[in-house]
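User: Before I run my own analysis I want an independent prediction to cross-check against. Here's the chain; please return only the structure tokens and, at the end, one sentence I can use as a sanity check.
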Amino acid sequence: MGTDAERNVEMRLGGAIHEGILGLPVEPRGLVVFAHGSGSSRLSSRNRFVARQLQEAGLATLLFDLLSETEDEVYENRFDIERLAERLVQASDWVTGQPELADLPQGYFGASTGAAAALRAAAQLPETIRAVVSRGGRPDLAGEALPRVSAPTLLIVGGADTQVIELNRWARERMQASTELAIVPGATHLFEEPGTLFQAARLAAEWFSRWLVRT
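Assistant: Structure tokens:
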């Protein structure tokens, strides 16, 4: 599957065009929408690596720019969790309007600040979002939305990312959904160590394969 299944798409979200990359394997079991971290984009090498692993597991993927070019020029917007969450909600609405995607159960994969946006958006879409995975995420920034998340959530953190481990534990204690914390030994915040990003991707693929089931 891999890159042969990917194509560029244009999405009108919040009145602006956002560029996206849609990965569509044959007969996908579900679709995972990615939420990149601050200062990143749909071209994030780490998220694209994870997306290809998910495609190999039979999952469709959608990476897109959470901010328009104009919005991204304002530095503070990159940390506006409410704005980013609303953009994810709009992306999920876009997905349901695409005939080839509309019937696929959806999940969110969030990295860094994108994880907080994914959880806030999931809290707003309990009937649509079936699972959430956070990689090196800041779920604590989802704040008061945490108890309202109903989607099963996997929190993946690097074993050497000690401060973020504690922030993830703090967030997990406030969540009522089925939640697991997976620690990848030896990994730092960006999962740059050999093999650690692959481990995170495998954990994500297993989680989404478990929960993104057609009903």
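Sanity check: Strands lie at 6-13, 16-23, 30-35, 59-64, 106-111, 129-135, 153-158, 179-184.
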